[in-house]
Amino acid sequence: MPVKLGQIGLGAWGKNLLRTFHGLPETSVIIACDSDQKTLSKISPAYPGVEFTLDPAKVLDNRAIDAVVIATPPASHFELASKAMENGKDVFVEKPMVLGIEDGRRLLEIADQTNKILMVGHIMEYHPASLKMKEYIDSGKLGKIHYLYATRVNLGKVRDIENSLWSFAPHDVSLIVFLLGRMPVRVTATGADYLQKGIEDVSFMTMHFEDKTMAHIHVSWLDPHKERKLTVVGSKMMAVFDDTESSEKIWLYDRGVDTKMDYNTYGEYLSLRAGDIIIPKVDSTEPLKLECQHFINSVKTRTQPRSDGRDGLRILTILNAAQISMEQGGAPMEIFPNAYNV
Ligand SMILES: NC(=O)c1ccc[n+]([C@@H]2O[C@H](COP(=O)([O-])OP(=O)(O)OC[C@H]3O[C@@H](n4cnc5c(N)ncnc54)[C@H](O)[C@@H]3O)[C@@H](O)[C@H]2O)c1
Questions:
Q1: Whose alpha carbon is nearest atom 39 of ligand 1?
Q2: Atom of ligand 1 nearest to the CA of 15
Q3: What is the DSSP string of 151-198?
Q4: Looking at domain 125-287+318-340, what is its CATH homologous superfamily?
Q5: What's the pLDDT band for 228 if we cut at 50, 70, 90?
């Protein structure tokens, strides 16, 4: 039996989710909603078998569907996702899961109480290049991870509710926490609003981990470059994941600084190693398709998705700390990973 879906939000990203879920053989999209008539009129002709509505309640109350996909602006995620689960539907909600820690905690409780699948659209956790990077890190190929830095910048859509931190950084925070498999202990962030008062167009945040590993994230929609890149510096090798590259997404550098057993001076003790550069083959399946398949599989098998509500709450905890740090001019914020039982 196909999983019967309803979707709310068919904007810039929602239309991609609709196209992808609609194309999966094990899924049947029954109803789709957007509160904007123009958006509905533009999208509906391509999906003759799908019912379209302006009213989200028609999706949330629909008895014919098993699950709801939510791709509305983040401020509406909590209300829509909680109602969907309370009405007996599994939920896929776009990132960020919600905008506040308390709402995040409550959403998780509702998922637990109703026994519903709650998956957050942390798409980078499904990207084939992320899985390859994780394989390199977990196998020890890169050695001990010293530090990472991610850049996600462009001259792009200016949001008017959530700032660049909440809009872009969920991708990089979720990717880095997924790759390292642990939470930071401290977060600092700074940012500035140039276009709209109180909405930071550019944010710089740093996550500090227990063993001195450090991860820096730079996000902006006010930048001359289009970059989506993560660099990982390990004690044995270094790796770059460039998501703007069409096929050569990962570059592995056999570069580092070795220590010699036999030396006379400190200069001789440390020797630079500049070895080969390897560009491994990475599966070219669309990350969005893998993410949507993962949700459908979780619904069918009743197993927790990789980016479940707990993962959503973890990322929320970090973003929330970064936001407070930014508001306090970059003050360090401690993270207590167990505080939310995640
Ligand atoms: N995973 C990714 O790579 C990715 C990329 C972009 C955006 N997103 C996320 O997707 C979500 C949507 O972003 P977007 O760029 O598509 O925004 P958008 O503004 O382009 O689209 C949102 C749509 O939701 C509709 N809408 C708003 N409130 C509604 C409601 N209560 N009921 C029904 N429809 C409603 C709007 O009319 C609009 O068409 C956000 O959470 C965003 O962070 C994810």
A1: 11
A2: 16
A3: EEEEE-PPPSSS-HHHHHHHHHHHHHHHHHTS--SEEEEEEE-SSBTT
A4: Dihydrodipicolinate Reductase; domain 2 (3.30.360.10)
A5: very high
